[in-house]
Write a structure and sequence with these properties.
This protein is of the alpha/beta class. It has one domain: STAS domain (Transcription Regulator spoIIAA). The chain is built from four helices and five strands; from the N terminus they run ββαβαβαβα. Strands 1-2-3-4-5 form a five-stranded mixed β-sheet. α3 links the parallel β4 and β5. The longest helix is centred in the last third of the chain and has 18 residues. It starts with a strand and ends in a 6-residue tail after the last helix. The model has no long low-confidence stretch (mean pLDDT about 85).
Length: about 130
Amino acid sequence: MGLEISVLKTNANVNKVCLSGSIDNDTFGELKSSLDEVIATTSRAIVVDMADVEMVTSAGIGVLTAALKLAQKRNLEFAMVELQPQVKKVFEIMRLMPILNVFESQLELDDYLKRIQRRIQEDGGFTSI
C-alpha cells in the first residue's frame, strides 16, 4: 500500500499533515520531502494526523524523528494525533512516546495548543510545556 499525504493550513501558524496508508521503505522518501517542506513554511506548530496510517516501519520512524529534530531546531512544536493502536505500539516499543508529542485526539491536541498560546500571551515567550 502507498502513502497519501495532504497538507492543510489550519491557521496562520499551524500546518496539519494528514497521512493515509503505510510509512515504509517505499514511501518514507516522499514523506521526508513533504515534512521538510512543511517545516520550512510553518511558523509555530506542525500536526501529523496518523488516523489513517495502517503501518510504520523503521524507515518511517526515522523520518518522523528526523522531522521532530528539524522542527525543534526551528523552535516549532511537532505533534502527532490519533495513532492507530498497532502504530502506537511500535512507537512504545521503540521508546519514543516520551520524546514525541502524541495525542489521542484532535481535541486533546487543541487543549495543549491553547495552553501554549496562553503562556505566550502571559509570558511573551514561546516555550513548550
